[in-house]
Design a protein that fits this description.
The chain is mostly beta strands and 174 residues long. The protein has a single domain, classed as Porin (Beta Barrel), CATH 2.40.160. The chain is 10% helix and 62% strand. The chain contains one helix and eight strands. An eight-stranded antiparallel barrel has the order 1-2-3-4-5-6-7-8. It starts with a helix and ends with a strand.
């Protein structure tokens, strides 16, 4: 877990120093994932680097879950994403579309403490809004499909399948 965290932080620092002339954002994100018989909430620390109309993001997520549910999972994850702006606003307020690859390492309450590795490729669309010159918010709607990459530790199997993933990110623009 520490090695992955260090790797993501190192990647964020390298992108900041390599692209110091370009816009970089640092903030937090709230993601809600819905599927057939499934619902979970994740919070994330995220960074995003902009190059004209393109941006690349990386984040570290933590899945929030109730300990009262038998098959609910908790755990951390990482994601990497790409977005493309569809407007010409030079201040950064534009609609966007893009995709992400989310990796989750989850423990299923009531079953085991062994990590299950989940991968969720997703597409997303939203609006990136910059205000007060340095603050931003970006609501988005995403659609993805979660695949379990390791042996199943959840007897109900609701953790695999289609996902509707709305999110809201906010933070500071450098």
């Amino acid at each position: 877990m520490q090695k992955i965290t260090r790797l993501v932080v190192l990647c964020l620092l390298i992108s900041v120093s390599a692209r110091s002339q370009q816009v970089f954002e640092l903030g937090g994100e709230f993601l809600k994932s819905y599927g057939k018989g499934y619902g979970t909430t994740k919070v994330a620390a995220r960074g995003e680097n902009f190059n004209n109309k393109n941006s690349f993001s990386a984040g570290i997520t933590w899945q929030l879950a109730s300990a009262k549910a038998y098959s609910v999972s908790t755990g951390f994850g990482v994601y990497f994403g790409y977005r493309r702006a569809f407007g010409n606003n030079l201040k950064g307020s534009n609609p966007f579309g893009g995709g992400r690859l989310m990796l989750s390492f989850e423990d299923f309450a009531g079953k085991t403490r062994q990590k299950s590795i989940m991968i969720t490729p997703m597409v997303e669309a939203g609006y990136h809004l910059v205000f007060a010159k340095r603050l931003y918010t970006a609501p988005s709607l995403g659609f993805g499909y979660t695949i379990e990459m390791s042996q199943g530790f959840n007897s109900l199997n609701e953790d695999v399948g289609k996902r509707f993933i709305p999110s809201l990110s906010a933070g500071y623009r450098f």
